[in-house]
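SEVERITY: medium
COMPONENT: batch folding queue
REPORTER: lab tech (J.R.)

DESCRIPTION
The queue accepted two submissions in a row. Attaching both inputs and their returned structure tokens so the on-call engineer can compare them side by side.

ATTACHMENT 1
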Amino acid sequence: MSIHTKTAMLLSMSDDFSTIPGARLQQSDGGLIEAIVGLTSCRDAATLVYTLKNRLENDLQTGSVSIYRVEYKTGDNDQYQQLFLHELPEEMHDPKPLSDYPAAEESVRKQLPVLKQDNGQQDSYAYPMIGRQGVTHLLHAAGNRFSESQIKRTEILWRVWQQLFSLIERNELDGLTGLLNRVAFENRFTQIFTAGQSQKRREVDSDPKVLALVDIDHFKQVNDQFGHLYGDEVLVQLSHIMSHCFRGSDLVFRYGGEEFVVILRNCTVETARIIFERFREKVERHQYPRIGQKTVSIGMTSIENNQLPTTILDRADKALYFSKENGRNQCNVFEELVADGKLELPSSDPENIELF
């Protein structure tokens, strides 16, 4: 059953939307119905985020709306001082401390919607999305005095958004490792190069970014000698190492089989090399049950907005191939290999390159 078939079933459960706590939709409210239909037409998480943000900002008139992923970081201090907000789509923004947003912080602590209204200041409204281990996402709106009807419409649309986002998110996660899958990679990576971006997004996209391909060395031998269950365990444990080695704002994908893709935001190639060398060494030191040690080979390249996604992937793949052909368990940068004369810069005709 497709995501949108499930969505249609969800929305058809009740004509007055009484399944949404605290909300009753009247048949005369055509604008709200239109907004819900607009949300259900979204095919990926980024489009869903932009659709809700734009709709709510129109409804709230002078209000600004953000949707965040909540990242929990452990530490010796109060855990709530270790929470960060990643604005979605998170590849476009730097993380922000939760403590900078009083309404959001209170909402996460109480796991309830919070509306702060102070005379002479903008209203601040926060509504959490709660998962099995606490608040996972958060809606935050700021603007002039919000009316009761505006808050009610916001709550209805946010509830519908949560259902849709959960369905899309499950479709974009790898079932074994829990990392983003290839579908998610193609969606996110292509969006970086979408034409007609706003000036604000172009300014954010000017931050340096790096793409790396990571491949487990001699992975087929694990499956052949120990069986696929042990091979799966290697993939799971490697995904855990990756989750700890990269920032919450970085994007980590299982591209297929034993190959992974990592996109580092706001990161130069020089810094990325240090990060990936540290990751490679940590993988090399890790001990897997029965198997012992495994290593990874890495190829990386900078992401340039004037290049097609396929060109960038091809460059990272060539650097990865060089790593594997020259001893494995190493990290190489495409631009450095070209500068050293070890690889040639291919001449490509952009008109003949297809996007995925």
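ATTACHMENT 2
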Amino acid sequence: MVDFKITASNVNGEGPPSNVLTVYIAKKPEAPAAVSEVAINLIDTKSDRLSITVQWDEPLDNGAPITGYKLWMAEEEKSYKLVYNGAQRSDIMSFTVSAGI
């Protein structure tokens, strides 16, 4: 964290300082460790759908608080899709999705 303020002066002296501007200097957070826990439940025997709860641990923040998480999922080697966008929810570290068997 770095704070800045500025003053100006003239022939009569130095004026009062400006308001402080704080700049937070930090790198992106570390990657979360692999999913720490998974709970799987069969929710529909006719369609073979599963309820999968994924839980993760907070990674190192590298100098700036974690502000949120996004969870991506790929089924059957298809492209990843965003299944949870908690970009503004750092307090939630688990999410339940539905997937086929």
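NOTES FROM REPORTER
The two ends are 49 Å apart (CA to CA).
No errors were logged for either attachment.
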